[in-house]
Amino acid sequence: MTGNAQIIDPGRAELVGETTRGGAHPTDRHPVTEHITVTVPTARTTNAVTGTNWEGVGVRPDRAVAAGKALEIAHQEAIGRLS
């Protein structure tokens, strides 16, 4: 979702934080035994503009900061833009 927002309408939103884990494809879990589960992709997410997705590479933020500071930094920037 965030990767698509960056491509379709740049400047509409600013992503603050760390690069995402890169999980673009929805999955279903199938138990094999009591202690083993297999996760199988059930669909493929594709950006209509680029024909690609963020599977395995993640979405890079516009402003890279540690995850623990992201909300604080984003909040400060939002307040600053309203002033």
Structure notes:
- This protein has 83 residues and is an alpha+beta fold.
- Helix content is 28%, strand content 17%.
- It is built from two helices and four strands.
- Strands 1-4 form a two-stranded parallel sheet. A two-stranded antiparallel sheet has the order 2-3.
- The longest helix has 16 residues.
- The chain starts with a helix and ends with a helix.
- 7% of the residues are buried.
- The mean pLDDT is 87.
Instruction: Note the main sheet.
Output: 2 strands, parallel
Q: Count up the helices.
A: 2
Q: Give the termini separation.
A: 29 Å
Q: Which regions have little confidence, pLDDT < 50, spanning 5+ residues?
A: none
Q: Total strand count, please?
A: 4
Q: Assign a percent range to the helix content.
A: 25-40%
* Strand order in the largest sheet: 1-4
Structural class: alpha+beta
Shape: elongated
Overall pLDDT confidence: 87
In angstroms, what is the radius of gyration? 17 Å
SSE run: HEEEEH
Strand content: 15-25%
Summarize the structure.
The chain is an alpha+beta fold and 83 residues long.
Describe this protein with a few key phrases.
83 residues; alpha+beta; two-stranded parallel ribbon; two-stranded antiparallel sheet; elongated
Blueprint (SSEs and pairs):
Blueprint: H1 2-8, E1 16-17, E2 27-31, E3 37-41, E4 63-64, H2 67-82
Parallel strand pairs: 1-4
Antiparallel strand pairs: 2-3
